[in-house]
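Title: Comparing notes on inverse folding

I've been comparing how different people in this forum approach sequence design from structure. To keep things fair, I'm posting one structure and asking everyone to reply with a full sequence. Here's the target:
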């Protein structure tokens, strides 16, 4: 069992002057492709990757408390489980070279492997970027604001420039900051700061990441994009999904629901996308969710619910999960329970006769401001094992309990499928509407 990616956790000071003026924007678009299929038999791998990723999200939060008691410190993490997510093509340099990099709403840095490598993942289709072959490449000096936002503990400066390094658990990445012309879809942007990683440890899974959180180094921050949206097609469709930036990221559907993007009071400039999950209905049961169930914990470092592109399943903190589980169990009492451990999941049922399970209760999530999400069935309850004739044998709830030591709840990408979701950074709102992603 190999780990899936290299990691860099960055603590980022926020009392830094704004780095970029907003650039002039017409919208632009690109396409996303799923890195892996979530087909029957693949769920336990997905859960394992999720668990690494959540450990990192949590590590990022606790690192704040350990690093300093100064609450103006912000957290970014370059995360694991990039194989559970989606790739987007980023073309870098002049002439441009194309890299499929993982879109990550949980991290900030844009990075790719750069030659000459001390140690790089061996990716036959995507050899490392060659800075010497690009006429627009330049290294960033340590005095640059981009370098200064990387915390002291994760950077060092020498004649090479602004060196960053991050290590966590089994993953590792290190390199230096540089500037390049970056193309996304049909649009070209000069002077974008990115990480040239020359040392990557522990896995061979990706040529890089494009960070989309609110941190100053992220693509959306650097390009001054006030909003972005995506619409993930179901894993079973295996097709391309759209991602839209700037004015093109516009949700005009009549059924659009909106809820504020909220701040963790202890991490006021946190770069995660937190929403306020206020209620859950399972079938006929309105669960007794209170304002404390998914609230931030008293220390402020835990709790809360984030929307994340790179986590596969949906993870709810213990108390909230227990209510959800209880409601499903009591409404599916006539079905045959199956131990979900072998699938990495918790609540599973055997199907009889090879058909889809009947009588699975509906799941509705409610958010601050009255936004409601009636989750499509295959986004929360799906086939995880088939019989010898390829017919459904076991179906499971794709919502699982968060690890005990990690108190954050995460809305993963499976739950976001067939939904057009909009991150309105300027308006501090998260909006969504059911959609046919092939028509967005
Ligand atoms: C990314 O680029 C490669 C090669 O340039 C192309 O084959 C692939 O279809 C592109 N993928 C997406 C999602 O646009
Ligand atoms: C927090 O850090 C900032 C920047 O390093 C500093 O200006 C501020 O005084 C610090 N606040 C506290 C309470 O230490
Ligand atoms: C980084 O931190 C170390 C120890 O905490 C300190 O000695 C050093 O001066 C700091 N460097 C910068 C550039 O702030
Ligand atoms: C700068 O530091 C990095 C990592 O610490 C090292 O690999 C590199 O050789 C150094 N460059 C110079 C010019 O000293
Ligand atoms: C790359 O990773 C895959 C699984 O993620 C593994 O099967 C393969 O052996 C790895 N290759 C190398 C060269 O490490
Ligand atoms: C979104 O579309 C609506 C209707 O087409 C338009 O009125 C509005 O200005 C657009 N918003 C943005 C940010 O482009
Ligand atoms: C499920 O199976 C695992 C081992 O395969 C076992 O440890 C666990 O106790 C079982 N759970 C239940 C509820 O039987
Ligand atoms: C279980 O009960 C539900 C209604 O409560 C029904 O729709 C479903 O068909 C039943 N399933 C089985 C296997 O009997
Ligand atoms: C979440 O929404 C509820 C209900 O509107 C409110 O009482 C609570 O303070 C909100 N929590 C946060 C962290 O904003």
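Reply #1:
Here's my take.
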């Amino acid at each position: 069992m190999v780990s899936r990616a290299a990691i860099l956790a960055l603590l980022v000071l926020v009392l830094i002057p704004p780095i970029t003026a907003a650039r002039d924007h017409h919208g632009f678009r690109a396409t996303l492709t799923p890195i892996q299929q979530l087909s029957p038999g693949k769920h336990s791998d997905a859960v394992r990757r999720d668990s690494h990723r959540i450990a990192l999200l949590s590590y990022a939060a606790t690192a704040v408390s350990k690093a300093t008691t100064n609450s103006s410190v912000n957290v970014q993490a370059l995360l694991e489980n990039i194989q559970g997510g989606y790739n987007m093509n980023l073309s870098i340099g002049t002439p441009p070279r194309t890299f499929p990099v993982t879109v990550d709403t949980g991290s900030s840095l844009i990075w790719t492997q750069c030659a000459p490598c001390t140690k790089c993942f061996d990716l036959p289709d995507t050899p490392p970027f060659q800075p010497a072959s690009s006429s627009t490449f330049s290294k960033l000096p340590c005095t640059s604001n981009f370098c200064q936002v990387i915390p002291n503990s994760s950077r060092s400066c020498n004649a090479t420039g602004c060196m960053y390094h991050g290590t966590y658990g089994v993953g590792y990445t290190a390199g230096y900051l540089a500037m390049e012309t970056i193309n996304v879809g049909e649009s070209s942007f000069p002077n974008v700061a990115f990480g040239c990683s020359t040392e990557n440890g522990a896995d061979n899974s990706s040529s890089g990441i494009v960070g989309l959180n609110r941190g100053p180094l992220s693509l959306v921050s650097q390009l001054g994009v006030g909003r972005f949206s995506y619409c993930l097609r179901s894993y079973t469709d295996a097709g391309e999904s759209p991602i839209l930036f700037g004015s093109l990221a516009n949700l005009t559907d009549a059924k659009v629901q909106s809820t504020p993007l909220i701040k963790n009071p202890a991490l006021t400039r946190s770069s995660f996308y937190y929403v306020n999950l206020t209620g859950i209905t399972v079938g006929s049961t309105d669960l007794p969710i209170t304002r404390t169930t998914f609230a931030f914990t008293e220390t402020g470092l835990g709790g809360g619910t984030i929307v994340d592109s790179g986590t596969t399943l949906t993870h709810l903190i213990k108390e909230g999960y227990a209510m959800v589980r209880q409601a499903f169990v009591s409404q599916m009492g006539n079905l045959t329970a199956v131990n979900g451990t072998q699938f990495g999941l918790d609540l599973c049922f055997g199907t009889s006769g090879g058909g889809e399970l009947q009588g699975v209760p509906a799941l509705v999530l409610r958010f601050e401001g009255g936004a409601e999400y009636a989750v499509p069935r295959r986004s929360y309850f799906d086939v995880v094992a088939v019989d010898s004739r390829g017919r459904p044998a076991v179906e499971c709830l794709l919502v699982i309990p968060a690890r005990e030591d990690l108190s954050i709840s995460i809305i993963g990408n499976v739950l976001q499928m067939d939904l057009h979701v909009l991150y309105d950074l300027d308006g501090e709102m998260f909006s969504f509407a059911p959609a046919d992603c092939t028509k967005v």
